[in-house]
Amino acid sequence: MSGSGATSPDRVRALAGDAWLFRWQVEVEAEERFTRLSAALERLGAPAALVAMARRSAGDERRHAVHCARLAAAHGRPVPATPPPPAPPVAPSGLAEREAVTYELAAACCVTESVSVAVLTALLPEARDPGLRAVLQELAEDEVVHARLGWAHLASEHRRGATAFLGPWLPAMLAGSQDGDLFGPPPPGRDDAALLLAGVLPHARQRELFAEALREVVFPGLEQCGVDASAGRRWLDGQLARAS
Ligand SMILES: [Fe+2]
Ligand SMILES: [Fe+2]
Questions:
Q1: What's the confidence (pLDDT) of residue 2?
Q2: In terms of pTM, does the model score above 0.90?
Q3: Ligand 2 centre from 5 Cα, in Å?
């Protein structure tokens, strides 16, 4: 199942097309999310620099979506003419608006964008095509800024003593932030190393990087911002045990 050459080139191309199509959808949803969050941050009296970062991020995601659509089409998976509907809110219902915004920024920026940076950084040295390399580089540089937005917001909320509520929510947040079932068995061919040339991480490597990013970046960062990450750490250990 693993290793280059185990899967037909057509299957690799289709899997890469699916991955870029999925990323296109994620980028389109991210633009909508950052637009909404920039307005919410402004309403809540967040520092102007954070509001500006959220607005800038929405513009970045629009640009990313164009790249992803082009790469999906190049792999035989053109994106639909109509964009996907806005993603449902990620914050659990029942949170006050300020907490819901903090939850969403933690999930979207501190977790998802930090994992994206790790994934893109791992993909860059594997890409041979100069056009693909340029896209991966551009995405990586922007996603670093988007992750920083989440950490800056969390640090600001920590100064108000308003981040501890996130701790018990971490298992739900992390479960919602993985692409598909990262800890389950991969679809046929999804672990083939040939995917790397198309800018897509094989499933097992993606799972490893997700775990590594949580342990090395996300959990320590949350703890510095006053969030007890122990429930998140237990969730990750349970998922890794399931995968093995
Ligand atoms: Fe993006
Ligand atoms: Fe982003």
A1: 42
A2: yes
A3: 32
CA of 139 from ligand 1 middle (Å) equals 6
| Cβ(111)–Cβ(173) below 8 Å | yes
- Six-digit token string for 38: 């920039």
Q: ∠ CA(135), CA(138), CA(144), 5° rounding?
A: 135
> What are the structural domains, with CATH classification, of the chain?
9-243 (1.20.1260.10)
Tell how far the Cα of 18 is from the centroid of ligand 1, in angstroms: 17
86 and 45 in contact (C-beta within 8 Å)? no
CA of 6 to the centre of ligand 2 (A): 33
pLDDT digits (tens, 9 = 90+) for 12-29: 999 999 999 999 999 999
Cα(244) to centroid(ligand 2), Å: 30
Confidence check: pLDDT of 49 > 60: yes
User: What does the pLDDT read at residue 1?
Assistant: 41
Q: Is the predicted pLDDT of residue 11 greater than 60, yes or no?
A: yes
